[in-house]
Amino acid sequence: MSSLAIEPFIQLRRELHQIPEPGFAEYKTQQTILSYLATLPSKRLQIQTWKTGILVKILGSRPSKCIGYRTDMDGLPIQEETTYSFRSKHEGYMHACGHDMHMAIALGILTYFVHHPIADDLLFVFEPAEEGPGGALPMLKSKEFQAWKPDMICALHIAPEYPVGTIATRPGILFANTSELFIDLAGISGHAARPHLANDMAIAASELVLQLQSIISRNIDPLDSAIITIGKMDVGTKQNIIAGHARLEGTIRTLSLDSMDRIKSRIKAIVHGIEQGFDCQATIDWGANYCQVDNDEKLTLDFMNWVRSQTEYQLVECREAMTGEDFGYFLQEIPGWMFWLGVETPYGLHHPKIEPNEGAIQVGIDTMVRYMEYLTGAGTRL
Ligand SMILES: CC(=O)N[C@@H](CCC[C@H](N)C(=O)O)C(=O)O
């Protein structure tokens, strides 16, 4: 690992940071990664694209298994407010969830093993559309992935709340079940001065948001965490026109599938009540649904013990988080685990000012290189 210079991966992260793209539209991102891969010795390298994603296999010298590693690729519809000189060039889009860091780390690990092959095969998965509508499930089911399906798989996610040098994870559930939520309400628009001739969806939508929040407090076991967040409301057209249409956009998070089912059935009932009470038409769209990230007990404990005993990094056994990650779909078919990587920054994930500490790139690459060498039973130790 000491033979790998980190600077090129910091530069790659900065390059990728400037071109955040929506899910399944990561064209420049894919091209940037493919161009970089083309600079590496190709002898042990096999590359396939899948939509805007990429699969990279590094052939081992005496493979008895294939170890998988996943990074996500897409950006978020956020107007960047960082102090960076390498801010996003895509107006209204930003890498605010660390996928630029994740890709740079994946490329660092991959580069190391191109130059220092180990016994086992390695598969690097560059997954598009993690933020939505979800690339993991269709990629997992694709013939390209199934042909190269690894025997185990792991991934990391940056964690603003931990110092650089911290690795946090737990066996079992790490991330929640999620469902997106889109509700449209259709009433009748009209003149602001003649409310009796219209049917105001601003009032119906306001009532609906408040009623939705009662589900968590009144219908869900308080010991079984759940969240309903309405992140966006779009109502009406002008201040003196009664709104004939409203759209609510949100997300549901639960730690159990029972709670997810219960919440959805309560939302249906409440929306039906709004239709009756406000004499309007409503439609519900559940959007993309992600299953929980359920870390394999044995593999995760082995990784945690290894970090504790073999590295200088701080291992934290953390609690479950209500964030979502479609990496959970890979873990439904392939044993593996995910962990948080500390990037210490005062702003959280999805914040326009988030500036992850780039020192974490070295920690992420170093940890995975050493652990993959340990897993294959061959490697050098730092
Ligand atoms: C780590 C992280 O922030 N993941 C996202 C996943 C998005 C899931 C989906 N689009 C939704 O909004 O439900 C998160 O928001 O947790």
UniProtKB/TrEMBL annotation:
Its cofactor is Mn(2+). Its EC number is 3.5.1.47. Pathway: Amino-acid biosynthesis; L-lysine biosynthesis via DAP pathway; LL-2,6-diaminopimelate from (S)-tetrahydrodipicolinate (acetylase route): step 3/3. The keyword Chaperone does not apply. CDD domains: M20_Acy1_YkuR-like. Residues 183-271 form the Peptidase M20 dimerisation domain. It is an enzyme of class 3 (hydrolase). The Mn(2+) ion enhances activity. The active site is at D72, E131 (proton acceptor). Mn(2+) binds at C97, H99, E131, H157, H350. It comes from the Bacteria. GO terms for biological process: diaminopimelate biosynthetic process; lysine biosynthetic process via diaminopimelate. It catalyses: N-acetyl-(2S,6S)-2,6-diaminopimelate + H2O = (2S,6S)-2,6-diaminopimelate + acetate. Belongs to the peptidase M20A family. N-acetyldiaminopimelate deacetylase subfamily. NCBIfam families: amidohydrolases. HAMAP family: DapEL (MF_01692). This is N-acetyldiaminopimelate deacetylase. The lineage of its organism: Bacteria, Bacillati, Bacillota, Bacilli, Bacillales.
